[in-house]
Amino acid sequence: MNMLRPIRHAALVAMMLLLAGTTQAQKAIDDAAVDSSMLQEMMVRTILDSIDKTIAYQYGKVPVKDIAELNLPAGYKYIPADKAQMILHDLWGNPERDDVLGMVVKNDYKVSELGAWAFIVSYDEDGYVKDEDADKINYDDLLKEIQESEIEINKERVKEGYPEIHLLDWAAKPYYDKDNKVLHWAKKLKFTGEEQLTLNYDVRILGRKGILSMNAVGTIDQLADINTHIPSIVKMAVFTDGNKYKDFNPSVDKVAAYTIGGLIAGKLIAKTGLLVLLLKNIKLILLAVFGGFAAFRKKLGGLFSRKKKEEEAPAYEPAPAEAVAIQEHTEPHTPDSNNNS
Length: 341
Prior knowledge:
alpha+beta; 35% helix; globular; disordered N terminus
């Protein structure tokens, strides 16, 4: 997986927007005194605002597959699965995931607000998670165990073209609400090459056959703000009748290969060994496309100058590789239809 793919997508779309005659962009390029960073930001925000207009935000009651529903109170909205996948993978630069069902965001959220946090909704049908160990877990020891497992995790991340990830500390220690079967905790993460620390705030709702996850992605300085939303978030998701934790039938239902401790650690503990799930951690990348626009600015400036001199400018014909990249951008990856039901 090439980490530059989202950058190429954004740059190519920006180029097409400019060549199509985006008034503000052309004016900026014609103005020799314009600040490069202002132009770059304008180009990126033009792209992101256009993407935002394609999102069919949902409000109120939102079904999640055929097993649960989200009851969004005032102040929140939901991004459907296809657009959530596009934001996570194509814009934020995360590994592709086929389990993402959508995103919960604040009502004033826009894609162009690069620092906004979001709760990623997903579901793992791993079975019924036993919670007898919840009161016995030493979370300080568990933190050390996770940190020790990072070497193997990061080998896989680097192999796939992603930066190493390091869990520095709990941003909020794990807490399990045994009555409502809701587990939540926050991790302070450091990604190689990034100065700013990343926050992952994990909420897990246990059900009869699996776990509904709501994972907040943001920066560490957003912890206080996210904390104010946690009471609403943990009450949002409910399993439908027949799919609740209490509906478990030991005669027919599968039991998960891990308990509460294994769920927090991010490992699937099975007889065949350890399958690391920490690769599912989501990193918020603040669309690091700005540096790539310097060359485009010079090239585009020349193109627009020729437009002034010529009555008709020749049509832009992208190279084959660029055409493929543009097509990929306009047709973002959609998760399997079985995961969108």
